[in-house]
UniProtKB/TrEMBL annotation:
Keyword Cell wall biogenesis/degradation attributed: no
Gene3D superfamilies found in the cross-reference section: Microbial ribonucleases (3.10.450.30)
Presence of keyword Amino-acid biosynthesis: no
Protein name: Ribonuclease domain-containing protein
Pfam families: Ribonuclease (PF00545)
């Protein structure tokens, strides 16, 4: 009887361990890649701040851009955007009124053709979160 009880406890522990491992594995996979839930977060181009609308228009026109770093490669080190090869993403400054520096707002676009990006993303918090820009 003691052996049967110990076996039940071991089976319960194994079941719980497997469930925890499955959750951990799913969380780890999500942290390493693009989450479908995050891709649902969008912003209409018309809803961007006025400065963001201007930057977005400049991107589609090919410039000229006011900052030297505009158009530089964005490394996606945070891995919040879909994984792509290095050089796929480029970042652009969205002016922040009253800021003495570039501020925290950016638009990051990905694609082969700079003026015809596959997708663009807006961040107001210096790459901590992104919203896909929809026309």
């Amino acid at each position: 009887m003691l052996r049967t009880a110990a076996l039940r406890v071991a089976q319960s522990l194994l079941t719980v361990s497997l469930a925890v491992a499955a959750v951990f594995q799913a969380d780890t996979a999500d942290a390493r890649g693009w989450l479908p839930e995050r891709s649902q977060t969008t912003i209409a181009a018309a809803d961007l701040p006025r400065q963001g609308q201007r930057t977005y228009s400049l991107i589609l026109q090919g410039g000229p851009f006011p900052h030297d770093k505009d158009g530089s490669v964005f490394g996606n080190r945070e891995r919040l955007l879909p994984r792509e090869r290095r050089g796929y993403y480029r970042e652009y400054t969205v002016e922040t009124p009253g800021a003495r520096h570039r501020g925290a707002r950016r638009i990051v676009c990905g694609g082969v053709r700079v003026t015809l990006p596959d997708a663009c993303y807006y961040t107001s918090d210096h790459y901590s979160s992104f919203r896909m820009i929809v026309p």
